[in-house]
Design goal:
The chain has helices spanning 3-28, 38-43, 50-83, 96-111, 120-143, 161-173, 181-187, 193-222, 259-292, 298-302, 317-323, 331-351, 356-382, 388-401, 406-455; strands at residues 234-236, 241-242. Strands 1-2 form a two-stranded antiparallel sheet. The chain has 15 helices and two strands. Strand 1 and strand 2 (241-242) form a beta hairpin.
């Protein structure tokens, strides 16, 4: 893409992803505290399509979880060889099936945790792993030990439409975390508008900054010779140089990896290992929602009496605290669904060495739907002026505002309400635009994936 266009795309992808998260936070206001989920929002917007949405989310999260296990199986043999060259003499240490099984013993207990908050310590370890990878890329850039193998640098120019389209989905989906947004809104102590917006801005802003930092420094280090996995380009510890690009992170005996790159691969393994439970959590909730789904009559979904009230919570405090979801899942059902997800993902990861083609299409459809299409459509439908849910929410907000000084309301209230209505109209138009943008991204990704599959 070049530095200028690449930086713009990274920022644009971060802004659009953040807007999708913001719309999810806005949609959660129409639901009871602690009950937000894709399924709950679907029931009051598109009730008969809820099963399709939840099935897509479950399939997407399930596929990503499998890819994490495959990455572990592919990287660990190279990691043990990097730490000890004689490790290859021991068959099971370089067997991908052994490492997938071994790491499953670690992620299984984590996958049975009900709350995302319970994974905060493992998430900190994953963040440390990301920090090391960033430092590794920066170290090579500062040392300047890659200049001999550096390719051409494009600052303003780009490499053409095909390379740009191939890189665009990677950048867009790098911000995908929307499957866990509702769970975060359920568990956060302060779910005020300012607090949730601050979380969205801080998380996406920090991710965007890291992406730009690594992208620019990595590109300036290797130029157009940069590979998909920059950590795999580190070759020899003695020369502190970097190799020509590799298509993946695997190394051969002739290319002895440096300790720094081996630790980098270990960091990637740790990162995906602790990310696996973060995919099981929304997958389990979506599977549960699919099993609970029943066709809904139109008269039931549009009745004003069916609108949920935020004053009376759907869950009691114990259930909301333990489930972190819209409806409490019994212990037996929780354990059964989690076990099935783990077993199936383990079987697929053990029998399949690559899911790149399948995941390319699942990501093109599932990720775009979760990040852009559903948040946009949900908010556009639920915030319609004639929506009973929106009218009830406005009445509650008006009653809260009415508790203030009457004179202040007379002086400022009218203009304040007009300003608020104007912002809502703009927000509704932008939410619909986000949904169409997501549809365009989906089509572009599907066309790109098909083109590369046919050409190869």
């Amino acid at each position: 893409m070049g530095i200028l266009l690449g930086t713009f795309v990274i920022i644009w992808a971060g802004v659009t992803a953040a807007f999708g998260l913001y719309l999810q936070a806005r949609c959660a206001r129409y639901l009871d505290r602690g009950s937000a989920s894709f399924s709950a929002v679907s029931k009051i917007t598109y009730p008969n399509a809820a099963v399709v949405f939840d099935a897509a989310i479950a399939l997407k999260c399930f596929g990503v979880g499998i890819s994490y296990l495959i990455i572990i199986g592919d990287l660990m043999p190279g990691v043990v060889r990097g730490f000890n060259e004689r490790a290859g003499d021991i068959d099971f240490l370089v067997d991908r099936h052994f490492w997938i099984t071994a790491f499953m013993l670690i992620v299984i207990p984590l996958s049975f945790l009900r709350r995302l908050d319970s994974l905060k310590y493992t998430s900190v370890i994953a963040l440390i792993s990301i920090g090391y990878l960033v430092i590794l890329v920066l170290a090579h850039f500062i040392n300047g030990d890659t200049m001999q193998d550096r390719g051409r640098i494009r600052v303003v120019g780009w490499g053409g439409i095909i390379p740009t389209l191939s890189s665009f989905p990677v950048i867009v989906f790098a911000y995908t975390c929307h499957q866990n947004m509702f769970a975060i809104l359920n568990e956060i102590n302060n779910n005020s508008h300012f607090r949730t917006t601050s979380v969205v801005v801080a998380s996406n802003g920090s991710a965007c900054s890291i992406y730009i930092l690594v992208a620019i420094t990595g590109y300036l280090s290797f130029g157009n010779n940069v590979a998909d996995n920059i950590v795999g380009m580190c070759k020899s510890e003695a020369s502190s140089a970097c190799s020509a690009p590799k298509s993946n992170l695997r190394t051969t005996g002739a290319d002895a990896p440096s300790i720094a790159s081996t630790i980098g691969k270990t960091a990637i393994v740790i990162l995906v290992m602790f990310s696996y439970p973060l995919q099981v959590h929304p997958c389990r909730a979506s599977v549960d929602a699919v099993l609970k789904w029943r066709p809904t009559r139109l008269t039931q979904s549009t009745s004003p009496n069916s609108s949920p009230t935020r004053a009376i919570p759907l869950l009691n405090s114990n259930q909301a605290a333990s489930s972190g979801g819209s409806e409490y899942m019994g212990e037996t059902k929780f354990a059964a669904i989690t076990t099935i997800i783990i077993i199936l993902s383990y079987i697929v990861a053990m029998t399949v060495t690559s899911l790149s083609t399948v995941l390319a299409y699942v990501g093109s459809t599932g990720s775009t739907a979760i990040s852009f299409i559903l948040p946009g459509l949900f908010y556009y439908k639920i915030s319609a002026p004639d929506s009973p849910h929106h009218q009830r929410l406005m009445k509650e907000d008006d009653s809260e505002c009415g508790e203030g000084d009457g004179e202040d309301e007379g002086l400022l209230g009218g203009s304040g309400f007009k300003s608020s209505d104007w912002r809502r109209k703009i927000l509704r138009k932008l939410s619909l635009a986000l949904a169409f943008y997501g549809l365009a991204v989906m089509i572009a990704c599907l066309i790109t994936n098909t083109f590369f599959i046919v050409s190869h």
